[in-house]
Every structure is written in C-alpha cells, then in structure tokens.
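User: Predict Na(+)/H(+) antiporter NhaA's structure from this.
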Amino acid sequence: MYNTLQIKSRYQRKLMRLYAPWEKAFKKVATPFEHFLHAQTTTGMVLMLMTIVALVLANSPLAEAYKHFFHMKIDLNVGSWQLSHTLHHWINDGLMAIFFFIIGLEIKREVVFGELSNLKVAMLPILAAIGGMVVPALIYASINAGTEGAGGWGIPMATDIAFAISALVLLGNRVPRALVAFLVALAIVDDLGAVLVIAIFYTEQIQTLPLMLAGGAFLVMLTFNRFGIHMILPYFIVGLLMWFFMLESGVHATIAGVIAAMAIPSRPKRAPVDFTQEIRKKLDRYDTYPVATDHTLHAKQKGILSNIKDRINAVGTPSARLEHDLHLPVALIVIPLFALANAGISIDFNSIFSTAVTPVSMGIIAGLIFGKVLGVFGVAWLAIKLKIAVLPEGSSMSQIFGVSFLGGIGFTMSIFVAELAFVGNAELIFQAKVGILVASLFAGLFGYFWLRYIAKSISVA
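Assistant:
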C-alpha cells in the first residue's frame, strides 16, 4: 500500500511538472554567497536602468516637475509633534538606512564567517581597500587644496559594490571565484571605511541627549541578542527608535542601520545536529498521506510542512534571513529610488567639458580612476611582494589590476557622500555628480574590457 502511494505521488508530481516549465531554474541549490552575488547583480542592473531614467527626466521637458516632486514635503504628525522632510531627504536618510543595514549585515557576515574571518586570506583585500581609500582621498585633497570643494575628499574613497560585482559576474568563468570573493571583501571593507568617514567627518553639530538615547537603544538590542531572542519584531521596534534618535542627534541617520545590524543574532537558535534525520522522518510521514485528486494537501501534510519550516528557521540565523529577505526590496525599491532622486543632473553639453575640468570634478575623476588603481593594485602588489598577503587562488596580478579599475565605480556611495560634503551648495554637488558619472563609466568599462580581453587566470593544478 505504501509503495503504491509513493508511485502515485511521484506520478502526480511528474504531471504537475508539465505545467511548470521554469521549475528547473528554481531547483538549483545556491550557496549564501551565490545568493549574495545574484542580489548584487540584480541591484546593479536595476541601478543602471534607473540612472538612465533619472538622466532622461532631468534633461527632458519634465525636468521641472521631476525636481519639484523630490522636493515635496512629507510630514509625520502625532499631536503637536511633527517630523517634516522633503521626499529627497526621506529617501536619503530613511530608506537608505535599510541599505546601510544590509551593508552592516554583509560586513558582519564576512567578519564572522566569510573572507574576512581568515586573517591570511583577508589581509590582501583589507590592505588593498585601505590603499583604495587613502590614495584617492589624497589625490582629491591635493587638487582641491584651499578651494571651497576641499571638504569633498571622502567622495572618491567609495566603491559601489553592486555595480562592481555586476561587472565581474558578467565575465562568468573568465575570472576565478576567488577573485570575485576578493572584490566582495574589498568592497565591504571599503563600505566600512565610508561609514566611518560619514560618521566622523560628515556629521554636523551633535546633540548629546539623542545620541545617548541611540546608544541606549543599541544596548537594548545587544541585550536581546545576549538572551537569545531571535524574533525580528523586537529588533525592528528598537532599531526604529535608534534611527529616530540618531536623526535627532546630528549624526547621519543611516549610521543607525549599520549599528543595528551588529546586534542581530548571527548564531542559530538550535544547532543543526541531526537536522537531516529529523527532516527525513518528517518527509517520510508526509509521503504516507494520499494526495487529493485536485493536488491539494492533506491537513496532516500542512502541519508537517509548517513544522519543517519552523525547524529550518531554527537552524538558520536572523541575520542571514534578514539579509536574504531584504536584498530584493533594497534592489528593486530603495536603490532605484535613491538613483532616481540623486542621479538626475541637467547636462548642458556645451559646458560639460568645462564642468568636468573644475577642481571638484577633476579631483573625483583622478581619485576614482588613478587613485583606486594606485591604491588597490599598488598596495596589493607591495603586500604580495613583501609576503604579507597572497594572491587569490587562480588569479593573476593582471586580474587584480582590472579589479582595481572596477573599484573605481563609486556611484551610489560617492553620490551619497557628495550630498553630505556639499550640503546646500547645488553647484558643487552638480560638479561632483558629473565627476562621479564620468569616472564610474570609464572605470567600469575599462575594468570590464581589461578582464574580458587582456587579463588571464593562472591555471590551478
């Protein structure tokens, strides 16, 4: 009887597959790192599309409406209390906090379990990232010394992880997996550096009481973690309060996203011991119940599936679950809105050259292109020659050279820093965005074509 039911169930599942032609694509088992790469590639593609849309709108008859839309005021009122900001501000300070939360989760994952958890492997991307931040900042500062744009030295330090990884992933098997991991680790260290720069150097007047309350909220989240609370809701509520206190303190509110991520548990509630045996027993029980002719589940099967889901969640971690669940909303909503609100610059082709040669634009272009190459490739070459670090497995120095150009795609984080560095100065922000777009486009194309047609991998025996 049992065998008959199994045969019948398999036959019915086979029939159902006839109506699911895309099922094969969804059956592929992907590692968390592969999920991460896929999410970043998706983000990069959508980001590119929305950047083009923003540029088209800013240079069309709809330009004025486009500008007024993002400067529309949105108010939150509770009794006599009011929080009022423009839509542009809500996107940059509110939605981008979710983006920075994802960055925080990525940093924590890499430090605890990923490339940065092994000091020997992590040394090269850490040193290269430091070089890729310091050298561009110095180049920018030397070009803009004594000018009103001197405060923008942090702009060329950044790397847009989504665009950079998208370019590398498009190369497929032409680049070794270890080189992709190197770029991911480098970009994450770079993000950490950008967060610190924003928190320390691009913060205006600090209000002590709200900052202390934000610190108190973080301690509450750490207490939740310490006592084994794995439910997401308590962290969300306290994290939201921490974001508000950070906003009121004068420290950029997006920093709350990174700090909150550090408090999210990265250890499972239950150890995955005997997990496969438990699940196999439950699946065997699942198969003992007949499938209805209309393919609906038996009530007992629904209960078994719910129990399996709970068991899977118990051996997973809240940090991994949040990183997985938030990547798609961030890729399809947060980052596109940020690009739409910030990438639209009105281009006068008669004066574009004169804008590109202003000290701010030149500092950014030189920093993101030459600074990144000198910093990332130069420091990596020196570290390897001094035997402080080793090349990623199967990679060549020529490929590191190409990756250093991809590190010059500043875009999202560079625009974000430019908005903070030149707040209230529309002309300098415009010059910065021109420099960022020119440098990111050149760096991305040069890096891609170098890796595609010139750089070669080293065969691994």
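The radius of gyration is 25 Å.
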